[in-house]
Amino acid sequence: MHTSFPYRFLIASLLVVSAPLSVAHAIPPILANKLVATDGAAGDQMGNAVALSNLAGITAAEPDIAVVGIRYDDSPQADRGSANVYRKNAQGQWVFEAKLVAADGVTSDAFGYSVAIYADTIVVGAPFDDITLADQGSAYIFKRNANGTWSQITKLVATDAATTDSFGASVAITNTGLGSSSFGDLVLVGTPLNDVGSLQDQGSVYVFKRNTSGTWASEGQIAVTGSDAGAFENLGWSVSAYGDRALIGAPFDTIAGAQYRGSSYMWRRSSTGVWTQEAKLVANDGAASDYFGYAVSLFGNQCIVGAPTDDIGAVADRGSAYVFQLSGTSTWLQEAKLVASDGAAIDNFGTFVAIQGDFAICGAPNDDGTVDGSSTSYADVGSAYSFTQTGSSSWAQQARIAGADGQTGRVFGNAVAVFGTTALIGANGEDIGNPIRENQGSASVYNLLPPDCNNNGVPDDEDISSGIAQDCDGNGRPDSCDLADGGADSDDDGKIDVCEIAYGDFDLNGAISGTDLSVMLSAWGATDPPAGDLDGDSVVGGTDLTILLGRWGPIP
Asked: Would you give the distance in Å from CA 342 to the centre of its chain?
C-alpha cells in the first residue's frame, strides 16, 4: 500500500562519488537495465533505497556495482528485509551478484531500509531492529571478497541506544583519504528519533571509523548543541558524506517560528576525528512545512538538499531542491533552486536527491503523469528529473525520467543515485509479474549520456556507424573497449578471438589458409561444432566451405 507524503517512515541517504564532467547538450537518458528480484514477492518494496559505486574506488570512472534495498522482504521472516547487489559486466549489462541479509535478522527489522556503498564496502541500515529495545535499530557492514562473494564484517549499534531511536534510518559511507584506499573507512548512521538529553526526537548521527587492522570502532556522536538545539528536529533523517565532510538533514527544524521549515547541517572532521559544525544550510525563500533537509547529497564542493513540500507559487507541495556551493574554506552559498518544469501539486519533487559533478537527480515519487511511450496519465506513477550544470552557477533540466511501466501508485523516483553518467532510480510501489505481486518493487539503471566507452567524445554507436571503430561481435561497443575489458585476443593482433574464429580464422594466424580448411573438413557434418559453422545453421556443410573459400587470404 502506498502512503502519500509526508511519510512517517525513514528514508535512505546515498553516498554519491564521481568526477565532474562537462555536458554539452541535453540528451534523453537511456534505460540500460531494469532490476527485479527473481525471488521477489508482494509487499517487498524493492527499490526503497539505492546506491552506486565503482569497485576499484576510482571516482573518475563509471560505476560497476550497485546495491538496492528491499526493506520488507520476507527472508524468511516477515519484513526481515534484504538488499540485492548487482554488478555491471563487460557487455555493460547489470547482473545479480548477491543477496545480503543480516546474520541475526528477525521479523520486522526492515534490513535494507537504507543503503550506501563505497567501492567494495556496503553499509545497510535496519532501523526497526529490536536487539534489546523495541526499534532500537542497527546497521551492518559488508565487504566484497575477491571471488565476488560478500561477507558481513560487523554490526553497528549505538552504545546509548533507547527505544524507537531508529538507528540506521539513514546511512552514508566514504573514505577520508578519497582514493587512498578502495575500502571505505568512515560510516555515518542517522538516528533521527534519538532523544538528546531532555530534547525528544532531536536526532543525531553516530560515526564509526575503520582502523588499519580493519576493525570498526565508534568515533563519536554528532548532535546540535546550544541555543540551536531543539526537540523534534529529527537530525539524521538524511545523511551524506564525502571525504572529511558530512551533510545531515533536519527536516522538522522550526526556524524563526516557521514550523517544519527544515534545515541541513554541514560538519567537518579533523585529522584526529573531531567533528565541528561548519555551516547550517537553509533555503533563502524557505517557509513553514517545506521539510527542507528531507533528502541530502554531498559531492566535493557541492551539495543538494530536497524540500519536497515546498509550495511553488500557489501550487501546494510541488517540491523543490536547492544546490549549494562551497565558497572559500567553509562558507556554503545557495547556488540554484531546482524545480520540475511540469511540476504540479503534491508531486513532492525533491523527496530524494543525488548530485555529482555536473549532474543532479531529483525524485518526484507522487508525480501524476505519463510514462515513456504512453499518453495515459497515472496517479502517483512517479518520476525523476535529471539536471545538468550549464555554467558556474546555472542548472538546466535535462529530462523527466518516468520509465516504461505505467501504474497507479508505482512511485518511481522514490530513491535515486547518480555516479558518473549513470543513474539508479527506485520504484518500490511497482506491481510485478502475472499474476500481479503488488508492491514488489524494482529499480532501473539509466545512462544519462550515450555510452562512450573509449572516451573519445563520440558516442559508441556513432563510432561504429561511421567506421571510426569496429564492432565485430555486434554488441554495440567498439572492439577496443571489449579488449580493454578483458576480451580474449590470444594472438595479440587487436582483434577479438571470437570474431576471428567466426570469420573463419580458426587458428588465429591472421589469414584464411589451409589450416583453417583442415579444421572445417575435420568438423564436416557435425552439429553444434566448436568451429567451422560460418553460416550459423549449426551444421558444417557446403555453404560454410563456400564462405571460407570466398574469404581466402589475409583477414581484414
From this structure: 25
